[in-house]
Amino acid sequence: MDLSDNSGTLAWTILPVTTVDYDEIVHVWTEAGLSVRRRGRDTREAFAHQLAAFPGLYLKAVVGDRMVGVVFGTHDQRKGWINRVAVLPPYRRKGVAAALVRSCDRAIRAQGIGIVAALVEEENTASATLFAKLGYQADVPVTYFRKLDHPDV
Predict the structure, then answer these.
(1) What is the pLDDT of residue 3?
(2) Number of structural domains the chain divides into
(3) pTM, rounded to two decimals
(4) Considering the domain boundaries, does residue 120 fall inside one?
(5) Which of 93, 97, 99, 151 places its Cα 20 to 30 Å from the Cα of 128?
(6) From CA 131, how far away is CA 116, in angstroms rounded?
(7) 10-44: buried (b, 16+ CB within 10 Å) or exposed (e) per residue?
(8) At 19, is the secondary structure helix, strand, or coil?
């Protein structure tokens, strides 16, 4: 799927992620300021397992042969989740994140999932703005509880 911004100056392609993309994904996350837990949930092995569980829902945006953004989609058979949206700083505010989220949303819905959601941390105003602009509503007040096996999970 080829897409470009409104001015036509930037063209990118949205493609499924493969296990070969692991190092580039970690680079995009790091450059975008996302936390990376390479000894926990973000190990190469954990990534491969997650990718196998959700084929076609882990997507990347590429310009030429360079990965410039990623998004991960998951679901529990009734609700889909959009996770880990990240775009390299020079490619932000050009529509790349919106294209990734829309593509991921479509891929989740194509699997028969009727609800697609995202959790956005309060201080992440850029992501909150993006999801609101794309029609997602922040109308479900939630308190998030978690129990970690260890700090890197």
Answers:
(1) 41
(2) 1
(3) 0.86
(4) yes
(5) 151
(6) 11
(7) eebebeebeeebbebbbebbeebeeeeeeeeebee
(8) helix
Tell me what pLDDT residue 153 has: 65
Domain with 125 in it: what CATH number? 3.40.630.30
- Give the ranges where the chain is alpha helix by DSSP (H): 22-32, 44-53, 96-109, 125-133
Residue 151 lies in a domain: no
Write down the pLDDT at residue 39: 86
For the stretch 136-146, pLDDT in tens is 988 877 777 88
Q: What is the per-residue pLDDT for 138?
A: 86
Residue 118 lies in a domain: yes
Cα first-last separation, the chain: 34
Taken as a whole, the chain contains a residue count of 153
In a domain, 146, yes or no: no
Q: What pLDDT score was predicted for residue 6?
A: 38
CA distances from 77 to 32, 33, 82, 114, 136 (A): 30, 30, 14, 10, 20
> Can you give the residue range of the structural domain that contains 43?
2-133
Between CA 101 and CA 134 the distance in angstroms is: 9
